[in-house]
Design goal:
The structure holds three protein chains of three kinds. Chain A contains four helices and eight strands; from the N terminus they run E-H-E-E-E-E-H-H-E-E-E-H. Chain A is α+β, with helices and mostly antiparallel strands. Chain C is globular. The chains are: A alpha+beta, B mainly beta, C mainly alpha.
C-alpha cells in the first residue's frame, strides 16, 4: 500500500475500519472502532475522527448485542467517547500510523485502570522479560 | 454521522425501488488539508445485494486467489455497483439516489 | 550463527509439535485401531505445515497478529464470534495441558495430580510474566525432544516395519470397531495435529520476535522440517501403542498407559526420560495456549500485547492471560479427568479450525498486504483442497460425536 498521498483512493470499510492504530514509535494504540464523518463547507462528506472503545464498537453490532454493549459501556463511563482527530494520522498502511506518541493520547481508559490498579501492584511489572 | 451509520444502510432509487445495501464508502484523498495531509472525501458508495464476504477483496480486485473462494464471493457480489456520491440525494435512512 | 538459529528452531518445532492432545490421541488410537488411522496424522501434518507457513509469512510481512487481521477481514461481528469460539477452544486446551503437566508429575512422583495443579498454574503464570519468550520456546522445545524415547522403545520392540508401513499405506479398519467411530477418531487425530493455537502462537511469536521478510527462509525451514519430524514422534506413539497395548486389549484412559510401552520395552531410564519429555512438552504447550488466549483477545480489541514489551505496557493482555489461567485451572480442579478434557479439546479444535484457516488463506493472497510474497497457484490449489477437508471435518465432527457418544 502506498504512503499517504494526494489523490489516493481508499475504501473505508476495507482499508480503514477495524485496522490497528499505532503511534509514531510503533506502539499499539487501539483499533479503528468507527469513524466520524462531517459535512464540509462545500457540502461534501469528509472523514473527521477515529472513534474508539466499546461505545464506538457497540453500535456496529446489529441487534441485541449492540444495545447491550452500548448500555454497559455507558454505565461504566460518562466521559465523551475517546477520539483521535484524523489530522494526527500520518499514514494508512497495514496499520494506521499516527504522528503522535501514545503518551500524549488518552484513548484507553481500561488499559490505564488495569495498569494502575492491578498490574502495577504485581512485582516485576516494570521490567522487560529476562 | 458515523461511517457505520451509512455502511449497511439500505439504498433505494427515487421511485423507491431497492438497489441494495451500502457495503463500503470509497474515499479520495483530495479534501482540505487536515494536519499534514489532504483529508479523505467520500467519493462513491459501493452497493451490493448483501454483506457477506464484502471485506475479503474479491469483489473489487480482479485476480485475487484462491480460485474457489474468488468464484464464490464474486458470484455473491455479482450485482455490486459503484454509485457516485453526486447521485445521492439524501443519506436517509434509507439512502436515496437520484433518477 | 544463522545455522544454529535454524537448528534450534527445528528442534523446538519437533519438541513443540507434540502436546497432551497428540500424546493421548495417538496412543488411544494406536491401542484400538493399530496404524489404520496413521494417515489422518499424516494428512494433519501436511495441513499444519501449509497453515503455519501461510500464517508465518503473513506475520513476517504484515507484522500483525492473526486476530487483528481476522477482525479486519470478517468484520467486527463475525470476527467476535470467531474470537469467542477460538478463545474457548484454546482455553479448553489450556486446561487440558495444565492437567497433563500435573498427570505427568503424578507419574514421576506418585503424588496425586490435583495437588500439583495449583503449583503448575503458578509456575505457568510466573514464566509468562517474567521469562524471555525465546528462552521459553527453546527450553520447552528442546526438553520435549526427550519424547524421542518413544522412538527408542519402538526400536527395542523389533517390529516388522514392513507390516507397520503396510497398515499406514493401506489402512484397514479393525473389524471390532464401527465405521463411524473410525471416522470420529480420524477427525480427532486431525484436530490433534492441526491445533489452531499452534498457529496463532507461531504467528504471534513471529511478530514478538520481529520477523521480517529476511526471516521467511528460517521460518519455512522450521515449519517444513520441524513439524514433519514432530509428526514422526506422533507416529512412534501410535506404533508403540499398536505393538504393546493393542495385542493385550489395553485401552488408553490414563497417561500411565501412554507411557506403558516405553516402560515395557525400554526400561526405567527411558521411562524417566519420557516423563521429562511429557512434563516439558505439556508445560510448553500450557504456556503457548495461555499466551494464545491473551493474544487472541488483545489482537481483536487492539490492545498492546506480547512479551516484547514490559508487563505495565500490556496490562489488559496480561490480565486476560491471568483470568484465563484461573478459569482453566478451576476447570481442572473440578476433578474432571484431564484425559477426558484432552479428548474433547482435540475434537473441538477440529471444529474451530476453519474459523482461522479461512481468513489466513484469504490474507496470504491479498496483493496489497503481501505484494510479491502472496500465495502461488500451486500452493493455493493445495491450500484450497485443505480448506475443503477442514470444513468437512468441522461439520462432521459434532454429528459423529453424538452418534458415537464421543468415541465409545
Amino acid at each position: 500500500m502506498t504512503e499517504t498521498s494526494h489523490g489516493r483512493v481508499l475504501d473505508l470499510n476495507m482499508h480503514l475500519l477495524d485496522r490497528q492504530v499505532v503511534d509514531r514509535d510503533g506502539r499499539f494504540v487501539c483499533k479503528v472502532d468507527d469513524v466520524e464523518l462531517e459535512r464540509g463547507a462545500d457540502g461534501a462528506m469528509y472523514v473527521a475522527k477515529i472513534l474508539i472503545g466499546p461505545r464506538a464498537l457497540g453500535p456496529r453490532f446489529r441487534g441485541r448485542l449492540g444495545v447491550w454493549v452500548r448500555a454497559i459501556a455507558e454505565r461504566l463511563s460518562t466521559d465523551p467517547i475517546p477520539t483521535i482527530d484524523f489530522a494526527v494520522v500520518e499514514d494508512i498502511g497495514s496499520a494506521v500510523k499516527l504522528s503522535a506518541s501514545l503518551d500524549d493520547l488518552r484513548v484507553a481508559p481500561l488499559e490505564d485502570w488495569v495498569r494502575d490498579h492491578i498490574v502495577s501492584r504485581v512485582p516485576g511489572s516494570r521490567h522487560a522479560s529476562e | 454521522m458515523r461511517a457505520s451509520d451509512l455502511i449497511g444502510r439500505d439504498v433505494v432509487r427515487a421511485d423507491g425501488t431497492a438497489v441494495g445495501v451500502v457495503t463500503d464508502l470509497r474515499c479520495v484523498q483530495d479534501g482540505p488539508v487536515r494536519g499534514a495531509h489532504a483529508s479523505l472525501r467520500i467519493d462513491a458508495l459501493l452497493v451490493s445485494r448483501h454483506h457477506v464476504g464484502s471485506l475479503l477483496g474479491y469483489d473489487r480486485r480482479k485476480r485475487q486467489g484462491p480460485w474457489l473462494i474468488r468464484v464464490i464471493v464474486r458470484y455473491l457480489h455479482r450485482h455490486m455497483q459503484v454509485v457516485p456520491w453526486a447521485d445521492v440525494v439524501s443519506e436517509g435512512p434509507p439512502v436515496r439516489l437520484r433518477g | 550463527m544463522k545455522l544454529l538459529q535454524v537448528a534450534l528452531g527445528i528442534l523446538t518445532a519437533i519438541g513443540g509439535f507434540v502436546d497432551i492432545g497428540d500424546l493421548v490421541t495417538n496412543a488411544l488410537v494406536g491401542a484400538r485401531f493399530g496404524m489404520s488411522l496413521a494417515w489422518a496424522t499424516l494428512v494433519g501434518m501436511v495441513g499444519i505445515c501449509l497453515y503455519a507457513e501461510m500464517s508465518g509469512r503473513v506475520a513476517a510481512v504484515t507484522r500483525r497478529g492473526t486476530f487483528d487481521l481476522v477482525r479486519e477481514r470478517l468484520g467486527p461481528r463475525a470476527g467476535l464470534a470467531n474470537l469467542i469460539a477460538s478463545y474457548l477452544v484454546t482455553a479448553l486446551t489450556f486446561a487440558a495441558e495444565i492437567g497433563g503437566v500435573a498427570l505427568a508429575l503424578e507419574l514421576a512422583t506418585s503424588v496425586n495430580y490435583l495437588l500439583w495443579v495449583p503449583l503448575v498454574a503458578f509456575f505457568a503464570w510466573l514464566l509468562i510474566w517474567r521469562v524471555n519468550f525465546s528462552i521459553l520456546e527453546n527450553g520447552a522445545g528442546l526438553l520435549g525432544l526427550a519424547l524421542l524415547a518413544f522412538g527408542f522403545a519402538l526400536w527395542r520392540l523389533h517390529p516388522d516395519f514392513g507390516h507397520l508401513a503396510h497398515q499406514i499405506i493401506a489402512p484397514h479398519k479393525p473389524g471390532s470397531e464401527r465405521l463411524t467411530t473410525y471416522w470420529y477418531y480420524a477427525i480427532a487425530l486431525f484436530g490433534a495435529a492441526m491445533t489452531p493455537y499452534e498457529v496463532f502462537f507461531f504467528s504471534s511469536g513471529g511478530v514478538e520476535e520481529g520477523w521480517s521478510r529476511k526471516d521467511l527462509m528460517v521460518a519455512r525451514l522450521n515449519v517444513y522440517v520441524g513439524f514433519p519430524l514432530g509428526a514422526t514422534i506422533s507416529l512412534f506413539i501410535a506404533a508403540c501403542a499398536t505393538l504393546v497395548l493393542k495385542p493385550r486389549g489395553i485401552e488408553v484412559d490414563t497417561l500411565s498407559q501412554v507411557a506403558l510401552p516405553v516402560a515395557f520395552a525400554a526400561g526405567k531410564v527411558a521411562l524417566a526420560f519420557l516423563i521429562l519429555g511429557f512434563v516439558a512438552a505439556t508445560f510448553g504447550a500450557a504456556l503457548e495456549t495461555g499466551l494464545s488466549c491473551g493474544y487472541a483477545a488483545a489482537q481483536y480489541f487492539g490492545w498492546q500485547w506480547g512479551k516484547f514489551v514490559r508487563p505495565r505496557q500490556a496490562s489488559r493482555f496480561h490480565l486476560a492471560v491471568l483470568l484465563t489461567l484461573i478459569a482453566a485451572t478451576g476447570l481442572v480442579l473440578t476433578t474432571i479427568d484431564p484425559v477426558k478434557i484432552t479428548e474433547y479439546s482435540v475434537v473441538f479444535s477440529a471444529i474451530a479450525l476453519p474459523l482461522t484457516y479461512f481468513p489466513i488463506l484469504v490474507i496470504s493472497n491479498d496483493p496489497d498486504y503481501m505484494g510479491e510474497q502472496k500465495n502461488g497457484r500451486a500452493l493455493n490449489f493445495l491450500a484450497t483442497v485443505f480448506l475443503v477437508i477442514i470444513v468437512v471435518a468441522s461439520v462432521a465432527a459434532i454429528p459423529l460425536m453424538i452418534w458415537t457418544r464421543a468415541g465409545q
